[in-house]
Amino acid sequence: MNLCFDVSYIALDGRWRAPGSWVGRRFPDVGMYEDIARLAERGCLDLIFSGDGTGVPSTWEDSTDDAVRWGVSWPRQDMNPLMVAMSRVTRHVGFGLTYSSTFMHPYYLARLMNALDHVSDGRMALNLVTTTRRADAANFGFDDLAEHNTRYERMEEFVDVCRALWDGVEPDAMIWDRETGQVGDPAKVHAINHRGQFFQVKGPLNTPPSPQGRPILVQAGGSPRGIRAAAGFVDVAFGEDKALALQVQQRKDFDAALRHVGRDPARVGIIWQQPMIVAETEQEAVREREGLLGMIPKEVAGVYLSHNSGYDFSKLPRRFRLDELNAEIAATQATPVGFVHALAHKLGAETEISREEFFEYGVRRATSYDTTFAGSAAQAADYLEETFEATGSRGGFMLGHPMVMPGDLARIVDFLVPELQRRGRFRKAYSGRTLRDTLMDIYDE
To answer: Cα-flanking dihedrals φ and ψ of residue 12, to 5°?
Structure first.
C-alpha cells in the first residue's frame, strides 16, 4: 500500500499546544518541516502532503474574529517554499502541493510545478481543488462561489491546458551544445493555441521539460461530478476519512467512471485520509486521542464547519432535519458531500436534531476525533489492512491530523511501518528515483 503523511493541520485548531508538540518552536519553523521530511524518508513514506486555504475563515457570523482568536484553520502558509526546503534534505520522499483551479491560472501553475519538479529532482505532486470556501473566493475577486458543476468544468479545462503545456516541450528538446551554441531544438517546442470556455493560452512553456515530464496529478472529488472529473486525469485519487461503506461505494463509483473513459481501474489507486495516533500501547494512544476534544472550545467548532462547508451554521434554527439542511447547503453552491452529508448517512437523512446536538457532533468533526484511529502498531496495521482490502487493495492511506509533532510521525515510522513491512504490506526501501516511480511501484510488483 501507499503511505503518505498530511501536514495540513499540524499547527492548527489547537494541536500546536498539545503536550510535547512544537516544543521550542512556532509555526512555520522551517526546521520542524525539515525534521518531518527526514522522518518520513526514514520510514520510506511515499509522500508528504499539505492541503491549503488562502482565506481567513469568515463564513461563521461573517467575521474572522473567532478564527483568529482560536487558530481555526489559521494561520496558514504557502507550502511551496517549505517543501523546497524539505526536498533539499531528502532524496526520495515526494511532496504534494494544493492549488485551486477555481482561482489560479493554468499557465502560471504549469510553469511553477515544472520548476518545483526540477528543484526536487522529480518528486512533486499537484493536488487540484475546486474551492468551496467563501473566504478564499473573496480574496480572488469573487463575490460568491461559482456553481458546483461549473467549478469542475473549469478544473477539467485547467488540467487540459496544463497537460498541453507540459507536453509542448518534448523530453529531448534541450541540446546545450557547447561547440555550436545551440540550446534547444525548435521542432520539439510547440505552442498549444488553446481557446476554451475559461482560458486562452498560446504557449509554449518557456521552461525545460521536468524530470517527471509533469507532476503527479491528484484530486479528491467525492460528489458524482467530482468523481467523474477525477477519473479523467488523476494519477491517484484522494478519498475522505468517512464510513467504510461510503468508501467502498466511492471505490465502485470511481472504478465505473475510470472504465467509462477507457482507463484501467486496477492501476489507479485511492489514497484514503486516515487520522491516526499510534503508540506502544492502546491505552497510550487512546489517552492522546481523548485530548483532541479539548484542543478548541466546543462553541468554536461552528467556525471550522462553516468555513469548510461554505455555509454559515450560526444561522441554524433550534431544531432541523439533516436532509433539508443539506439541500439548502447544496443550493448555495457549497459542497453537497461535506459534514452534513456524512452526518445524515450516520444518523439517517430524515433525522431531526437540535442545534446543540449538531455542534456536539461538529466538535468531533473539527478535531477529527471520530475518525482518528488510536491503538498499537498491530491494531493500526489490522485496521489499515481491513480498509485496504475492502476498498479494492489499490492505493493506500494519508495518515495525519496528529496531535503531537513530530512525535506522532516518529511513532508511525518506528512502530507502524515495521509492522506493515513484516506483513508484506509496505516497502522496505525506495525502488525508483521519482515520485511517479515510488507511487506506482505497487502496481509493478
So the answer is: -110, 165
The answer on whether 376 is annotated among ligand-binding residues is no
Q: Does residue 439 sit in the same domain as residue 350?
A: no
Amino acid at 205: L
Give the pLDDT confidence of 292-326 residue by residue, as tens digits. Answer: 998 888 878 999 999 888 889 999 999 999 999 98
Query: Measuring CA to CA, how many Å separate 439 from each of 45, 251, 268, 444?
Result: 10, 18, 10, 10
Return the CATH number at 163.
3.20.20.30
Instruction: Express each pLDDT in 50-65 by its tens digit.
Output: 999 888 999 899 999 9
Tell me if 52 is assigned to a ligand binding site. Answer: yes
- Its pTM stands at 0.92
Final residue before a domain boundary, out of 366, 383, 411: 366
pLDDT at 336: 63
| CA dist list (Å): 215 to 21, 95, 377 | 32, 10, 32
Average pLDDT of the segment spanning 333-340: 71
**Co-location of 383 and 360 in the same domain:** no
Is 382 in the same domain as 357?
no
The residue segments making up the domain with residue 319 are: 297-366
98 labelled binding-site residue: yes
Q: 148 a known binding residue?
A: yes
Residue pair 390/248 in contact (Cβ under 8 Å)? The answer is yes
User: pLDDT value at position 335?
Assistant: 63
The answer on 303 and 286 residing in a single domain is: no
d(C-alpha 204, C-alpha 182), whole Å: 19
